[in-house]
């Protein structure tokens, strides 16, 4: 067996580092399950810090006061550090001063540069969290920004795998990991060749763990969550969920693609390519079995239910009532790609073409501006997209009963439909 197959990668998300008690629990998990042996720990921003940073950026960009919100963010982190007996004041002050500089600059940033600025601001959540966790564990703090190399696709940096693998291998030779303390680094964050910070897309820390595992040929990745493992539905939305003890990479990739928010969709592929198992375990019950995602065969799984809220259904009609042609579709797809709206479901009829996308108002506005001359466009917002994987008659009945389906599609394994949510609007 290759020596580096012994390396483990752990990922702790926002919920598992939401306060001092959670970080103490993380410490126990690392001591009891992660050590001895080489260990790299990926940490996300604490609790809802990323949302708080997004809100701060919005206020700063709009020229509105944000001192109270910034003070709240500082106090939150300072209190956690104090509760953990960490002399972190100087470090926190330094980081908060950096954040303040970025927020001051945000007031004069143009709309066009806002996504770039977003990454410079929002990445502070992971910087703050990793400094606290590393200090608490007496671990080695590693700045991942010079190592996780991306292009300049702000808010969703695309990885340069070759540069990243070379940089990570140079920064983290196995001997150091075997002999030294565990390494703590940021999830979700990367950097460009020119030294600017990027982010990998919301909830992208799972992906960071997979990048590290792939590049360092880890033995396994464990993502520590507040659920018992990968379930057939989000327990916050659906009752009677069932845990999958094991599941294939392919099934998981599809669930994540359809919107099962427990795992970031980009996480699975790098692990599947190198055959690295992904363990989903509960930080509330660390000795419980969890879910093993790996190269396995299984029979038909119980149906999985996935709901995506805040969806938008956009329909395009040619102005002259022409049929929807390949030429028309080429134009529509081109603009969807340019404004970075992902198609979650699509359907065409004779004179109209409909797509379901996430509702992102600024991007939708750009889409309308670019296509309004050519097409008559209608859209509905406040919709929900449901997916049932491995559906059967009872699961279809359970989800569709009493709902008006605005769009539906089925393949042999998967049934999807769009319906009205709580706050639908038409445009
Ligand atoms: N199929 C699923 N199985 C388990 N949890 C799910 C599933 N779909 C959605 N979830 C939700 O994912 C949450 C955990 O993911 P997330 O909040 O991103 O964790 P973290 O940010 O701590 O990494 C759970 O609390 C649960 O509500
Ligand atoms: N902090 C980032 C990245 C992330 O992955 O977080 P979490 O692991 O808590 O989902 C976010 O909230 O999007």
UniProtKB/TrEMBL annotation:
It is an enzyme of class 2 (transferase). GO terms for cellular component: cytosol. GO terms for biological process: homoserine biosynthetic process; lysine biosynthetic process via diaminopimelate; threonine biosynthetic process. It comes from the Bacteria. InterPro entries: AceGlu_kinase-like_sf, Asp/Glu/Uridylate_kinase, Asp_kinase, AsparK_Bifunc_asparK/hSer_DH. Pathway: Amino-acid biosynthesis; L-lysine biosynthesis via DAP pathway; (S)-tetrahydrodipicolinate from L-aspartate: step 1/4; Amino-acid biosynthesis; L-threonine biosynthesis; L-threonine from L-aspartate: step 1/5; Amino-acid biosynthesis; L-methionine biosynthesis via de novo pathway; L-homoserine from L-aspartate: step 1/3. Its EC number is 2.7.2.4. Keywords: Amino-acid biosynthesis, ATP-binding, Kinase, Nucleotide-binding, Transferase. GO terms for molecular function: aspartate kinase activity; ATP binding. It catalyses: L-aspartate + ATP = 4-phospho-L-aspartate + ADP. Residues 7-281 form the Aspartate/glutamate/uridylate kinase domain. Coiled coil: none annotated. Belongs to the aspartokinase family. This is Aspartokinase.
